[in-house]
Amino acid sequence: DIQLTQSPSFVSASVGDRVTITCRASQGISRYLAWYQQKPGKAPKLLIYAASTLQSGVPARFGGSGSGTEFTLTISSLQPEDFATYYCQQLNSYPFFGGGTTVDIK
Amino acid sequence: QVQLQESGPGLVKPSETLSLTCTVSDGSMSGSRYYWGWTRQPPGEGLEWVASVYYSGNTYYNPSLKSRLTTSVDTSKNQLSLKLTSVTAADSAVYYCARLSPLTANDNPYFSYYVMDVWGQGTTVTVSS
Questions:
Q1: B54 in reach of chain A (CB within 8 A)
Q2: What does the radius of gyration of chain A's CA atoms come to, in whole angstroms?
Q3: Which residue of chain A is at minimal alpha-carbon distance from B35?
Q4: pLDDT (tens digit, 9 = 90+) per residue, A32-78?
């Protein structure tokens, strides 16, 4: 099975900061990757798919990049509503998730 | 906007079978466009993909759960079901159902990725005697 490893697991940041989260795949997955945001007690919300395509309605401060084995989610200017946990997911027949990255208030 | 709603018993005894249902608010289950899936999240932990199923019955199971899992679609009832046998405390989690839609990337409109774009609110299952 292809494993997804996210780093860091936890990041403390302030409003306005630029935040970058990395997701590494144990094997190449081309651009078969999505990013989700989850807030406590809520279902995950799709942010980005195909590594870099922004889902409709998601603010442009969210961006994704990468292909193969290394991917990045960037929040260009952190807003109060962005404090949450972020997960990457491979988009194939076995859509496993990464371990998650929690973005907390500094 | 389509809505998904999970339902099932909140408490299941160890060694018994967990049965969950996800009801889809519109008629999209009967079409050939979507896959449907289950994901779970143990308390304080991350997301774990459980299973995906096509309306025709074609299924994909998490290998770590495959021997205990059955999932199916009933298009006449607009429902997705999950059965997990021989449960233990490790199966305690919030269980989410989701729709997997074929979405196209910005730079390639001829290729689709199946992505979990609509989720239910989740249902909590506790395994305890």
A1: no
A2: 13
A3: A93
A4: 999 999 999 999 999 999 999 999 999 999 999 999 999 999 999 99
